[in-house]
Structures are given as C-alpha cells and as structure tokens.
Write a structure and sequence with these properties.
single chain; 439 residues; mainly alpha; Amino acid/polyamine transporter I; 21 helices; 79% helix; globular; Divalent metal cation transporter MntH; metal ion binding; cell membrane; symport; symporter activity
Length: 439
C-alpha cells in the first residue's frame, strides 16, 4: 500500500537529537490543521445558536465534546505514526468490499456536509462585509480552488503557519468581543455542569448533537492520521514513540484553543441574546444585533459586528484547506484513486454548492433557510461520526496493525466504546423523535 499523501509524507524536517522544546516546535503544526475543523462555520452557528436559545447549559456539551475529541485525535495520530497508514487505508484493509464502499460513501458525504458549511459561512461573511448577494457569494467560494493552489505551492510548513495566524485572529477577536459583552461569570461556570434540560428539551438536544457533530468531525480523524506522517521522524519503534508523544502534545494544545473559541462563541450568544424577545442565534441575527448593541459604546457595536464577519470569513477560508486534504486522503485511501488536488477540490466544491443553490432557488435569499441547512449539516456529521469512530477503535486495538506496544490501553478502549455507543443511542433517539413529528 502506498504512502498516505505521498507528496508531503516525510517532507518536514525533524531532528531526533534536538532537545524537547525544539522537537515540540518542529512537530507543531498538524494539530493546527486538525483544530481548524473544530472552529469552522458549523461550530459557529451551533455554538452561538445554543447560547442565544438555551443560555449557558450547552457549555457542558462543548466540554465533553472537546475532551472526547482530544482522545480520538490522539488515537488517530497514534494510528498514523504506528501503522504508517491513514484511517481510510486501514478501514479499507480491515473491511470487506461492500463495507469499504459504504464507509467511503458516508465519509464523502460527511466531507461534503463540511464543505456546505464552509460555502454558506463564507458566502454569508461576504454578504455581511461587502453586501454581496448570497447567490454571487456562493459562486465566489468556488474560486477557493485558486487560493488553495497558491497556498499549496508555498509548502506544507507554510500552510500550517497561515492556518495558525488565522486561528489566532479568530481567538483574539472573540476574546475581545466576550470581554465587551460582560457575561455573568456565575451562570457561565454553572454551564459546565450537566443539566437534564439538554436531553429533556428536544430543541436543546438537536443543537447539542449539532455541537457534537461540529466539534468531533469525521474527516478530522482521517486527516490527522495522515498529516502526522509529514515529519521525518525515524520509522523505528523508538522514533515512533517520540513522534506520538509530540503529536499528542501538539494536538491537545491546539484543541484546547479550539475549546476556548467554541466556549467564547456560546458565551457571546448567551451573554448578549439569551432571554431576548427576538429570534436570535443565527449569523444575520447576531451580526445585526451586534451592530445595534451598545456594548463598547456607539462605535463598539459597529466594530464588534465587523470583526464578527471578518472572523467568519477567516474561519471559512481556513476550513477550505483542510477539507481538500481530507478529501484527497479519503479518495486515495478507500479507492486508491489519485487526482490532482485542484481537480479534487473543484469537484468537491461544485458538488457542495449544488444543494446551496437549490435552497436559494426554492426559497430565494432566505437567510433562515440557508442557516437551517448549515445546522442540518452539523447534525448529519454527528450521525456519520460513529462510522468513523468504530473503525478507529478497532484499528488502534489491533496489534497486527499497530504493533504490540502501540495498541490502546484498557481505559482508552472503555472510554472510546462508551463514546461510540452513547453517541449512537442519542442519534437513534433524535431520528425516532424527528420521525414522530412527521407521522
């Protein structure tokens, strides 16, 4: 079986004789690309809608989702380094042909759902910043292909740096906006405690599953297992052990930043809009409410709304990069078909814009319908997630794939299986409740 993402595999220097800090710096990067998926436009809409509609109670969901994400991404990184394969290659090897095709189709749909969220988020940001109609904004997002081509030519390390700058731009913007919004600290801290309202209230459960789907994204498990192999670490047991250590540190640090950003998004929605008589929690609602708010004075509202739109655009563009890499990994791993990155990117983006254009055609430039579609994509990701988690657990517990010393510890197996089962049960519950509504 060929190398995962052969064009970048083992291309980034890694000095095994360096001290611990220098090793960490050399390995810093793959976690940034993974963290992008944890703060894309899908996260925005679910977290901010959750805060605006249900206050702080869904902070608990962000907390457990982020903790679960750290575990799953560390397993994904360990799989890539220990086996020398990515999750798509391993799944294709473990499954029979029908199961392999099913897993590929579901993963492709998950990537498309992610891409739809990026399209909608970027198009809305262009509308908010430059008053560009949604249909034209969606068309412009197809040009992301050209942007990606230019970025890829700079080299993989440069891609990591660009992504890092955009992530910290988003972080600083929302730290500033939450500071101005003056949230209730006591209520905020209480939000990290589990509440029965999350399960008893179907609307809250729907948003909670959207947050889970937006936080633990299926394509990120495939992405991480591949890009951790970009470093030139020794492919010996000792070299792999060291690489796993620094890959895990990198991943946990970046996902901690993503956790903070997602909490800031929800806190901003709750602090400014929870309990309001208005129907808030969507991008346009929040943008206009921010622009009209008196937080930070008369000028403050305009600054906050503009920064909100800038951060949304940065988030959408960031996700474009990782979505393309994930698509390439999945197609090559499952089908062993290699396409040029720009061909793959163009095909994925054109497919992603079709349902958005259909929605615009049926409903016109209906802001609420477009944003409903975005929330649905995140819930779909939650429904698809167990089908990526289960192969990951099976693979990382298989000594023939991992080697004896790199298989899961008992506690990792227990927690990951509980996560897969609980998520599956909640998904089934939501499907049943949704069907009941239509009967």
């Amino acid at each position: 079986m060929g190398k995962s993402l052969e064009e970048i595999n083992g291309t980034v220097s890694f000095d095994a004789s360096a001290n611990a800090f220098r090793k960490f710096i050399m390995y810093l990067g793959p976690g940034l690309l993974v963290a992008v998926g944890y703060m894309d436009p899908g996260n925005w809409i679910t977290s901010m809608a959750g805060g605006a509609q249900y206050g702080y109670i869904l902070l608990f969901i962000i907390l457990i989702s982020s903790a679960a994400a750290m575990l799953l991404q560390s397993m994904s990184a360990r799989l890539g380094i220990a086996s020398g394969m990515d999750l798509a290659q391993v799944t294709q090897q473990m499954a029979n042909r029908p199961l392999g095709i099913f897993a590929w189709i579901l993963t492709e749909l998950a990537i498309m759902a992610t891409d739809i969220a990026e399209v909608i988020g970027s198009a809305i940001a262009l509308d908010l910043l430059f008053n560009i109609p949604l249909a034209l904004g969606v068309t412009i997002t197809v040009l992301d292909v050209l942007l990606l081509l230019m970025i890829i030519k700079l080299g993989f390390r440069k891609i990591e740096a660009i992504v890092g700058v955009l992530i910290f731009t988003v972080l600083l913007i929302f730290m500033f906006e939450v500071y101005l919004s003056s949230p209730n600290v006591s209520s905020l801290l209480t939000g990290f405690v589990p509440s029965s309202d999350i399960v008893m209230n179907k609307g809250a459960l729907y948003i909670a599953l959207g947050i889970i789907g937006a936080t633990i994204m299926p394509h990120n498990l495939y992405l991480h297992s591949s890009i951790v192999q970009s470093r030139k670490y020794d492919r010996t047991d000792f070299g792999k052990k060291s690489a796993i250590k620094y890959a895990t540190i990198d991943s946990n640090i970046q996902l901690s930043i993503a956790f903070v950003i997602n909490c800031l998004l929800l806190v901003l929605g709750a602090a400014l809009f929870f309990g309001s008589d208005q129907e808030l929690g969507r991008f346009y609602d929040l943008y206009h409410a921010l622009s009209e708010s008196h937080v930070g004075g008369a000028i403050g509202g305009a600054v906050m709304s503009t920064l909100f739109a800038v951060a949304l655009l940065a988030s959408g563009q960031n996700s474009t990069i990782t979505g393309t890499l994930s698509g390439q990994i999945v197609m090559e791993g499952f089908l062993k078909i290699k396409l040029k990155p720009w061909v793959r990117r163009l095909a994925t983006r054109l497919i992603a814009v079709i349902p958005v254009f259909i929605c615009l055609w049926f409903y016109g430039s209906s802001e609420s319908k477009i944003e409903d579609m975005l929330i649905f994509t995140q819930v779909f990701l939650s429904l698809a997630l167990p089908f990526s988690i289960i192969p990951l657990i099976l693979a990382t517990n298989n000594p023939k794939i991992m080697g004896e010393q790199f298989t899961n510890k008992l506690w990792v197996n227990i927690i990951s299986w509980i996560l897969a089962i609980v998520l599956s049960v909640l998904n089934i519950y939501l499907i049943i409740e949704t069907i009941k509504e239509f009967l």
